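Entry 0007
Protein: Amino acid decarboxylase
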Amino acid sequence: MMTFKVTQAGYTITADVQQIGPDLLITITGGDHPHIGTVTTFGVATELATVRFPSHDGRLHKDDVLATTLMQQIRSQVAGSCTITAGVHIDQISQQQINAAAPMARVLGQQIKLWLQQQPVTASAPQYYGQTEQPK
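Output (structure tokens):
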């Protein structure tokens, strides 16, 4: 597990990254009320997909913008699948803080990409029974 942080415009966004075999689990949080607003997934063999959860007032969270921005930075380093949960809420957010969010996610993505380049996947490939084999 590795933690990355970036602070700008009066708030911090954190990305916790966990390698699970060839896969990645990334949790993006920050602001005054961290939460899980969206879940974004992609992989070597799968396209990007996002689930957006409703907020307290019924609107759907937009944290997938952060996840997608970060994903664009790290995609080439992902060896398996990647799941990104994201939830950043700043009370009474300013336009300056909104404008800072995507660049902050890009910086986190660049930090994570560099870390991944230094952490090669060492998991062995899973083994399966052949078509004519059964467990003993």
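Curator remark: The chain has a mean pLDDT of 95. The CA atoms of residues 40 and 96 lie 25 Å apart.
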